[in-house]
Amino acid sequence: MSSVTEHNPYTDEELDNFGLTKNQIPKHLAVIMDGNGRWAISQGLKRAEGHRRGVRTVRMVVEECSRFQLEHLTLYCLSSENWKRPRYELNILMHLLQQYVVEERSEIMKQNIRFNIIGRRDGLSQGVLDEVQKTIDLSESNDGMQLNLALNYGSRAEIVDAVQEIAKETIQGKISPEEIDEELISNHLYTAGFPDPDLLIRTAGEMRISNFLLWQISYSELWVTQKYWPDFDKKDLVQAFQDFASRSRRYGGLDVD
């Protein structure tokens, strides 16, 4: 269980101590949590221990982002490509995921967090699906930050699913081909109704997107650290927010003096 008991949002004065203001905090943070296995190997441990240690970092990031009052936090927990891993490692991941959802349920409620998952549910264990749904149902009336876990998620699969649904609606006469635009496509993605991520953090130094939110991160700021996910700490999160705040986001336009 999480040991953090302080859930009050950061005050303006506390944000100022970080060198930040409320309007400089990203509304939607997406995170590719990479390096659990490599962290374990570097410590002379089995890969499974890296995943267990990574859960601690998840707890910290969720709690801190809630205090920073983000609107959405999306964590890349299990990609559709991860099924290629050894069965024993997948079993451990399923167990840790189910354990996390159960143990953090009370914390999610204390922090007024809405819980959600994105991705295809096929392949996820029934135990995980049952506990996930319990937490979704229990937290649906919360109005704080929305925590989105990307499980069995792949962005190309997401786009395929959206295109298929749009095609069905076109055949049924609900929409015409001329009505298909960016907004309509966005509204058929798993993230329909979410703002696009302002900031994408990736750990372990990898300079790639790994099939994560390809449509949604078109204009996201990228922040990469060499640290493995288990070593990622609050100082790193704050540094990412500070770097984000210092950037000029032009969306293809020009700075205005």
Question: If you had to describe this structure to a student in words, what would you say it looks like?
Answer:
By secondary structure, this protein is of the alpha/beta class. It has a domain at 27-154 and 196-243: Decaprenyl diphosphate synthase-like (Undecaprenyl pyrophosphate synthetase). The chain is built from 9 helices and 6 strands. It has helices at residues 12-17, 36-42, 47-67, 87-103, 105-110, 126-139, 155-171, 182-186, 234-246, and strands at 28-32, 72-76, 114-118, 146-150, 199-202, 221-224. It has a 6-stranded parallel β-sheet. Helix 6 (126-139) links the parallel strand 3 (114-118) and strand 4. Helix 2 (36-42) crosses helix 3 (47-67), helix 3 runs parallel beside helix 4 (87-103) and helix 4 packs parallel to helix 6 (126-139). The protein is globular.
